[in-house]
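**Sequence, structure tokens**
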Amino acid sequence: MRRGELESRILILVTLALVAFGIVMVYSATSAAAAVGGTDPNYYLVRQGAYALVGIGLLLAAQRWDFRRLRYLAPPLVLVTIALLVAVLVLGTPVNGARRWLTLGPVAFQPSELAKLALAIWAAAYLSRHRAPRTLGELARPFGLLAGLVAALVVVEPDLGTAIAIVLMLFAILLVAGTPFRVLGGAAGIVALAGIVAIWAEPYRRARFFAFLDPWDDAQGSGFQIVQAMIGMGSGGIFGVGVGQGVQKIFYLPEAKTDMMLASIGEEVGLIGISGVVFAYLLFAFAGMKIALGCRDPFGKRLAAGLTTLVCGQAALNASAVLGIAPLTGIPLPFLSYGGSSLIVLLASVGILLNIAHHGDRAAASVRDRGRGDGRARSPRARGGGRAHGERRVRDARRVAGSRRSAARS
């Protein structure tokens, strides 16, 4: 089996399995409520299926497109993303008090989803050309300033959960690039302080935070969503009540098809189903990080780590909120929750990961890995055998010279 082939197969199987299961669960979470309300039960099924087809098409295209070309698209992609994030604050369609969607005819798009991918590409490209930050000052310019600008625009929408996912992804890229732990620790402190300010500045965020601490204190108010999620998870038991047989999704569990998809899964397929979903994300994390660690190209290594963290970090944030071990953030469950922008961007990210798995070991010996701190080329042969390699080259040179002298005499 070729290098990266096992990881590629794991990624493809896990991703397609999650997408297929997600389509089934989206239909289960929406059809009953639609039938009771007198609307089309197949509405969300058809749309999620269409999003999946578009995303799989982008996955196949990204799998065949050399990932190294992405580094040249990083600056314009970031500029376009910032422009869209500003535009959504002015022109966005308000939904539940938030402006997160730009509507173009029948299509609604979330620029914040594109921001995740754009920042991952830019950060990987920047840190593959420059030495990893050694102080908070080096981290702030321009890396921290750009990340802070994008995160601030996302928080204003408001969408604190997506901002947290972006920060987690960037921390993973910085870690793989070789940023010292003391710098990452200082940056984490600054980010945590900013997060506390963001929570305290909005009344609904404060309510969510206190509901997380004691959801039963206001079970019919701020704690309603967490309480209903717990009831749904507990009702499923070991094996669940059966796909399509859940009752929490029918006007009891808010956002059953998006943020609370894991609670719907827990009710209908039980602990066994939840364990399968968690295992699938662990497999994804294993395959993605193996691809990152095995990639010789500095840009590909950082990008693979960032994209893997983007998927698995969002899954961890969503699961933590549904299980009541973290405050609600509004993060969807990757590949499973309903949502076109998230599904399409994540499937395109998987395509990039597959391309890195297939071509990441073809980096030339002259590629510089700035994360090493010395700026020297990372030679694939220079792993403990430098002296022996030099002696072989001398012997080969002498052999060639001897052959030329013999040919000259004859």
